Amino acid sequence: xxxxxxxxxxxxxxxxxxxxxxxxxxxxxxxxxxxxxxxxxxxxxxxxxxxxxxxxxxxxxxxxxxxxxxxxxxxxxxxxxxxxxxxxxxxxxxxxxxxxxxxxxxxxxxxxxxxxxxxxxxxxxxxxxxxxxxxxxxxxxxxxxxxxxxxxxxxxxxxxxxxxxxxxxxxxxxxxxxxxxxxxxxxxxxxxxxxxxxxxxxxxxxxxxxxxxxxxxxxxxxxxxxxxxxxxxxxxxxxxxxxxxxxxxxxxxxxxxxxxxxxxxxxxxxxxxxxxxxxxxxxxxxxxxxxxxxxxxxxxxxxxxxxxxxxxxxxxxxxxxxxxxxxxxxxxxxxxxxxxxxxxxxxxxxxxxxxxxxxxxxxxxxxxxxxxxxxxxxxxxxxxxxxxxxxxxxxxxxxxxxxxxxxxxxxxxxxxxxxxxxxxxxxxxxxxxxxxxxxxxxxxxxxxxxxxxxxxxxxxxxxxxxxxxxxxxxxxxxxxxxxxxxxxxxxxxxxxxxxxxxxxxxxxxxxxxxxxxxxxxxxxxxxxxxxxxxxxxxxxxxxxxxxxxxxxxxxxxxxxxxxxxxxxxxxxxxxxxxxxxxxxxxxxxxxxxxxxxxxxxxxxxxxxxxxxxxxxxxxxxxxxxxxxxxxxxxxxxxxxxxxxxxxxxxxxxxxxxxxxxxxxxxxxxxxxxxxxxxxxxxxxxxxxxxxxxxxxxxxxxxxxxxxxxxxxxxxxxxxxxxxxxxxxxxxxxxxxxxxxxxxxx
Amino acid sequence: xxxxxxxxxxxxxxxxxxxxxxxxxxxxxxxxxxxxxxxxxxxxxxxxxxxxxxxxxxxxxxxxxxxxxxxxxxxxxxxxxxxxxxxxxxxxxxxxxxxxxxxxxxxxxxxxxxxxxxxxxxxxxxxxxxxxxxxxxxxxxxxxxxxxxxxxxxxxxxxxxxxxxxxxxxxxxxxxxxxxxxxxxxxxxxxxxxxxxxxxx
Lengths: 745, 201
Known about the structure:
The complex is a heterodimer of chains A (745) and B (201). Chain A is an alpha+beta fold and 745 residues long.
């Protein structure tokens, strides 16, 4: 299916864990069962800000099956809740974020104010409405659009200056403002924790997390436990998209309850709580100014952004970063400020920062192309750079031109009108749009254990997690290729903090980081096998390791392939039942650090707009990626398709609505917050350059998860303009914003 | 399809459970106005339920407030059926009740007296994958796998009900099931392929 590599014959096509997922056998966090399990539910605030004067729990506590109600009055001391550093033991770090159940302050609407623990979910739920809070309310602000206009509300901005601050004498320039509302990850699996204190100082957690090790560390440091005494299991993660990159209030709440009641406690958030308690993509305002000469060379780019954070924590992301390096431009100036609001804290959401920034930058470039009367792809090619202008390092690889070529052909770019609003098909206005996405391609540290048993089976272990991209599959394939053995004999185990440390799954780094570690573990294993062959196999003792190769589950003499020994036979000769080793894979080498590494994407969209009512229908999508070698073509394609779906939601329908008179989120359900459905998804072609980038890592692979989404919303906005001549700079692009009425604009 | 057994006992259950359901399922914001000062309800007695799940006849004593979803997941360890919203909006909990696809979060268990339930675990009666499960695997019609059980149960019903004639009709039928990872195109590919084989599923 892909790759020029001859080892493809070993590759099976389906996900290695796929059968468990189609049969319902795969267990997600809330599905683990422990004896004597108690059920916990949050009671949440119905004011946005203030103090709880009194919380009457007496009625609720008297109800059938209710075991306890934990709140600020009776919450046991949590070492990491102490904000006085001098009083905290050395192994304790202050809990980051909202200290749930700790005090009587309300910081946002929907904040947990009590935890009901009962012997059944029904009994816990039934008690919620009998918990009666009395509040002293305070004034609050949740209105981003209003609050950002007063500079006094902003935290001091971070600025970046390169060259002149905006070239004023350019042949052409654009300056526009762009707005993106709060978007919510909304993975299908509800956030959940099961906590069980196996001993006074020993904690077992089943937790929905993208990082078993990071959760282990956060919990250990909050409760003052040795890390090894906290075990975090996240075998299957039902989507997350960034929302499970940190431990939220559900984690300490479950731990506190389990400790207080001395029995295992399960806490699962409700869907409405998924909108308020596990982060979101922050609301943002951006202003982009691009000046160009008559040929289209960018003379200057100015990019300013404001995004919201909570009142109790700062959250920032790389919104303006793309403008610094994606295109050749001497003069780039950026500014990024935070606006605290009385909302919960945001978190990275797929394509964090860059997705926000690329919507503005890639829309602005499209706007400039019309001013210059240039094809927007020609304009981008004009400003192509092989050197990152920010750090002056060459890109490790940059095949963006190949993405343009493929996308233009497949979408039928030649049919795109240079004058917008001039092409109709079956009475519908037709538009074509494209945009680019980019994300850093890192490589971090990871450890992998490899156990090659004398039955020929290979077990690999790393404490990473798999929220859906197919990490288990791609790691198995990397091992299969490195060992040149059938993947059916390989098992990759993840999702358990007891395994050798690995990274959190996020930032498109898993394949590069853990894949490199798997590759190194297999190569180390091969070296051991060669050494064993030289020592024990007859006729091998005069040979050096260089003269041998390991493939097809044998150690083979390169010069004479008839001289070989099967691995199980070799282990038997060596009197070993297995080879068991653990390797540590480091970050980028000094050689690799001479480059700047990114994955790139280009998205192409054809859509129609109904001139009667402005209704938009995406007709066709071509999405292309430059992410080095594609390890697992099938799952990689699925990630790109998923990015398109996420991008359609971001562009056309997703928006969190807040009632600013109460601070309440008023569309906290799938019925009112519109994620894309089957009907909204057009035929989509996903394509990769699939060229190994060996300047990043030895396996030549870079991440896909973020670039699948980054830039997509701009491709839609650009196509809507091409169809209608109307530029919508405020997401989502809904029919009302196009202003069509009775067939007239 | 097995007819529902509307006997007197069941009507009695229904009256009771309907009243409970009204209180239990009404949004708390609405109930608060009149219920918060109300007397705390008396303990809920267990009710008897006879039900067939994945071919196995079961006599159970259940909490009358339990949805069939919570009964499956919390009491019976059929965790293949997923909880995504508990509002009938996402489709992750889709099962077959008397052969008809149903969102199990919207059904009180007690109102399923003598009903025949099929969940993802019971879709294939052999060790082999059901053709729809195999097609989902082949077309990579999922990523995280959490909506997958519901998608497959809906997909089977889509083909059985003759709604899989075109890609558009498949999409319309399947709009009840959200996939946040965005495997929609692959899901439609899988359903279309199974439908085209014409084999009875």
